[in-house]
Each structure stands twice: as C-alpha cells, then as structure tokens.
Amino acid sequence: MQLLEVKNLVKHFPVRGGLLNRIVKKVHALNGVSFTVEKGEILGVVGESGCGKSTLGKLIVRLLEANSGEVIFEGEAITHLSAAELLPFRRKMQMIFQDPHASLNPRMTVGSAVGEVLAFHEVVPRQELATKIDALLSQVGVNVDSRDRYPHEFSGGQKQRIGIARALAVNPEFIIADEPVSALDVSIQAQVLNVLMDLKNKFNLTMLFISHDLKVVDHFCDRMLVMYLGYIVEEMPCQDIHADALHPYTKALLGANPVSDPAERHELTVLEGEVPSPYSPPQGCPFVTRCPLVTDQCRTEMPPLVEHAEGHRVACWEI
Q1: Burial of 268 per CB tally in 10 Å (0-12, 13-18, 19+)
Q2: Which single residue of 31, 141, 165, 311 could bond 136 by disulfide (Cβ 3.0 to 4.6 Å)?
Q3: What is the pLDDT of residue 302?
Q4: In angstroms, what is the C-alpha Rg of the chain?
Q5: Spatial strand order in the sheet of 93-96
Q6: 68-73 and 42-46: which strand pairing?
Q7: What b-and-e string marks burial along 196-206, b requiring 16 or more CB atoms within 10 Å of the CB?
C-alpha cells in the first residue's frame, strides 16, 4: 500500500547580491524528483553532500516550500495546504534531524522538550504527561531519571535518542531520518540504528532514511534512491547493491567505499573531472563532467529514469 508519493518536486534557492539586493542567480537544489514510498518500508536516500538529500526531506514535511511539484500523503496532496489544514498531517509525519546538538533547545530540560510536543498536539491528558514522557524515554533507552537534565549533560548518542523519542511522541506513521547517525561515533551509530529498527518493527513505521553511507543504507533499508546534483540517477532494491548497481555514479560510490575485510581490499575509485556548479547545472546529464561513459547525447539530452527491472530505475543513455 502506497503511503507517500512525490511528483516532480523542484526547489531552487535564490541568491541575492548587488546594490539593490536583487536575485542574481539560483541554487538548483532539486530538479524534478519523483518517487513513491510503500507503507512499512524504509527507503534510503544516498549521495554526496549538496546533492539535495536534506532539502528533499524538509520539502516533504513542509519545513521548506517547493517551487513546483506535489507531495501526496495517504492520497491527499499536502503541498499547498494552509498551516491549519496541515496540522493533522504534522502528527503523522515527523523528522529526526542530523545534528542532535542543534535540534534540542539548550534551555529546556529533556522532559520539557518531549512534553512540549505531547501538550501541543494533546496526545494525552495533562495529568498523564509525566508517565508518557517516561515511557518514551524508556523506549529509546534513556534513563527516566534524566528527564530533568539539560541537553549539554548528555552525549551525542543520548541526544539523538531523545530526538527520536520526541519524534515518536505523536505516534507518527512516517518518519524522515536525516542522517541520524552521521554526527555520532562509529561505536554509537550501531546502537542508534538498532533503536530505530526496533521501533520500526514495533510500531510498523515507514521511514525515509537519508545518509551518505552506503553500508548503512544497504544494511538498514529496503530500497534506495541515489541522488546527484538534485536528480535521482538510480532507484533500486537493497538486496545486493554491489552486483545490481548499473549507473556509473552508483558504481563509483560503491568503489569508493572502504571494505571491512582486508582480504577483499581493492583500489578505491576516484572520479575524474569537475563537479558541476548547482548554480548552472549541465544541459544534459548532470553526471556528464565526471562520467567514464559520456557520449554526445549525454551532453545535450537529460536521460529519463527508465525501469530496467522490477523496482529498478536508472537514468543513463548508455545502459
């Protein structure tokens, strides 16, 4: 059953300058992104920094407004709803932010940060707030006796767990996790991922999991989107991504990924060529300046995202 559909989503950020502070150019953050998310699945989004992953997540939950395109949640278009009309959907869609240090108010105790969400959305009666806060903290592995402590008294992993508890407070159906473990030590990343997986299984959550780490996405997600310069260049199941990857950019990402087994070491892939500017992306394929398979057609025409197998789409003229 389809929970979320994104249709041709576009976001360009204006850059102002000059004497009159006019718009002098635009950053092309997203350029017509389309995909669906099935209920109960985890969809990964991978790509280099600046490819539009976080912008995509914020557009879906309306923390940013799109220039064009549609976001359809449970069959209803939410892109142009007013703040009042959007409020019921706020409970159904929540976001876990990348930086656990910046996402918590340093002047609020942990209990207050979680309780504020519960009170605003009237999840439980006021007399039951304390019990609900304790239950949420306990679910994510935070000691309930810590509810009166401030964020600076917690480690990065504990802060991220608190962010997860806050997102779960309104019993959401869909969670966007924006690189939730990238700011954490490797030893803590596995713990936070295990918490997310346990909660996903317990509450039948649907997730959009944004990451730059292909190993994490391969282990954690059911499907993945590979993004480059604001475009989706490949969409595929996370079964055997090393064998199934078709797009040269996806292969390059996999080739640049360090391996854990010393016996399987190989030369890391280093892409040649310049990364195009997001202010003026290429006319044809966005990967044209770095692709080893480039042809004249690639320089003039944008390849469509074509299905090569069930659930596997690729945007490349040479495949």
Answers
A1: exposed
A2: 165
A3: 92
A4: 21
A5: 93-96, 174-178, 206-210, 42-46, 223-228, 231-237, 312-314, 306-309
A6: unpaired
A7: beebbeeeebb
Q: Of 234, 228, 230, nearest to 314 (Cα)?
A: 234
Give the CA count within 13 Å in the CB-facing half-sphere of 297: 7
177's tokens: 């996790």
The sign of the torsion formed by the CA atoms of 89, 203, 234, 189 equals: positive
Cα 278 to Cα 4, 40, 62, 97, 231, distances in angstroms = 27, 34, 22, 24, 11
E strand or H helix that includes residue 14: strand 2-17
Can you name the residues that pair with 77 across neighbouring β-strands?
Answer: 72
Judge contact between 96 and 161, C-beta under 8 A: no
- Are the C-beta atoms of residues 230 and 31 closer than 8 Å to each other? yes
pLDDT tens, residue by residue, 216-236: 898 889 999 999 999 999 999
Task: For residue 125, give every residue at least 6 positions away whose Cβ sits within 8 Å of its Cβ, in sequence order, or none.
Answer: none
Instruction: Give 170-201 pLDDT, tens digit per residue.
Output: 999 999 999 888 877 777 888 888 888 888 88
> pLDDT tens-digit profile of 17-32?
887 888 888 999 999 9
| Measured distance CA(206)–CA(282) in Å, rounded | 35
Residue pair 272/289 in contact (Cβ under 8 Å)? The answer is no
CB 160 within 8 A of CB 100: yes
Structure confidence at residue 268 (pLDDT): 63
Distance from C-alpha of 256 to C-alpha of 277, rounded to nearest angstrom = 22
Q: What are phi and psi of 154, to 5 degrees?
A: -115, 155
Residue where the block lists tokens 């159904």: 92
